[in-house]
Here is the input.
Amino acid sequence: MSGQQNKKKGFDLGLLKRIFSFTRPYSRTLYLVMTLGVVLALLAPLRPYLIKMSVDKYISNNLMQGLIWISVIQFGLLIVESALRFLFSYRANWLGQTVVNDMRNSVFKKVLFQNISFYDRTPIGTLTTRTINDIESINDIFSEGIISIVADILTIVAIITVMMVTDWRLTLVCLATFPLLIIATWWFKEAVNKSFQRVRNAVAALNAFAQEHLTGMYIVQAFAAEDGEMKKFTDINTEHRNANIKGIFAYSVFFPMVEIILAMSLGLLVWYGASRIMNYGATPGDIISFVLYLNLLFRPLRMMADKFNVLQMGVIAGERVFAVMDSEENLPNNGTLSATDLRGQVEFRDVHFSYKPGVPVLRGVSFRLDAGRTMAVVGHTGAGKTSLISILNRLYEIETGEIFIDGRSLTEYDIYSLRGRIGIVLQDVFLFSGTITDNITLRNADISRDKVEHVAKMLGIHDFIMKLPGGYDFNIMERGNSLSQGQRQLISFARALLYDPAILILDEATSSVDSESEQLIQNAIDTLIKGRTSIVIAHRLSTIRKADEILVMDKGIVKERGNHNELIAAQGAYFDLYTAVEQKKEKEVF
Ligand SMILES: Nc1ncnc2c1ncn2[C@@H]1O[C@H](COP(=O)(O)OP(=O)(O)OP(=O)(O)O)[C@@H](O)[C@H]1O
Ligand SMILES: [Mg+2]
Here is the structure.
């Protein structure tokens, strides 16, 4: 069997070892299962042997008393064997599920703490597959893979040994069909393996397609693209069916073939066995027990190829899961400075930043914002405004230059402590499925309902929330689709204010909202930024005008700085834009 193992592409004993390292906390169960496997293998040839004894010793000689005894022993053995088999399969599966549970937790934990740039490169569908499907395949290693393969091999060895000892010539004749069986098994393994791979790819494609199109359903329907998308889905689905049918074909051919080979073995047994009885003193009991041995032998052999595939799949899945576990993309959190008493002075000194090497996004940004003041950042789309605030939160690492908060370098702070003191409201608000309260507190159980209501009242959005069915318990559907964009932003204001941050970052949504929401939002923004350092990526003229300082960004550099009056007086880029907007009487500048 080891020959077969080595031939497998991608089969890696090191990986298997690593998968098994997850059983360490449960080593007693592992040893128990392994011991049971050995015991069951040794017990396997026992019953046929007892049957041979009853035939040869007791039935042939008409010893009724002995026959009853040996039958009782056999019955007892059956009970013991069944009980052990139950324990074996129950504990092996328990082990699998427990290991899988641990693994899934540690993968998700790893994913949670992954650097944001990791998500720019890794499709969400892939991560879902890693945490759900791949880990499920690893479970199969325990329930159907390695342990039962080892147990099966032991059983086979035990049975063949007993057969050989009983009558080696007869054994060799019976097993003359083995080359056929090996060829059939090899073909089956390859066929199933290929279709397995295809099925897996098709499932991944189905998942990704469904996920993406359900998320983008609004666009699909708004552009009446249903037919085109349906066609694409049908194609992927057909591939899935065809791949499965290929696999089913292999099964449908292989199992009858094994039956035929077994029948051939039995035929050889009867033919050669008869001459053994007549000429060499073999007993009828030998023949009967050989029939049973052959049956016992073929049962695990039939499943062996399948189990090897399962094992291989599990190991491949393990490799992928470990790739996620090993990715060292966590930001270095070497800072020790606590941000608890942050005043909130921010300084950028010649900051250069890019998402991809060679494609600069910020090209030497410098500014200084004193604690408690408000800065509006304006600029055309793609100017680098959102990037500017992402690096302040250390979601991404800068290339050169330095960022200071309260005069200390950003890297000196403990990252989580720092993020806890920076409140952030993003351009497109993401809401999780759950209640309004869940979304404001992010399921932090330490925050009381009173506190949530207090914050909502401060922001002037309590009445709006109370008007929703269920009020604070209003259930937000997946991704917050049940609320308008303005309403979602109001919820995220509360989320940001709740932690009373020293520095507030607000990426204003560009969309115009109705005048009632507009008023609510403006008042809420005023409350939010009062008394704390605020960086507002602003589109509303009202917000920009009120700011202590305006930063005009253009293609990754700071084009102008100053307050509204200064910039108007300077008659530069800001002045041009402002006058254009004034003429059109619009509310938004950029
Ligand atoms: N995650 C990312 N990976 C790679 N490039 C990015 C990423 N996010 C933004 N960029 C690029 O960085 C540049 C600046 O983007 P940024 O989001 O900072 O612009 P912005 O000023 O916020 O624009 P908008 O007003 O449209 O929100 C753009 O050219 C954009 O293509
Ligand atoms: Mg932006």
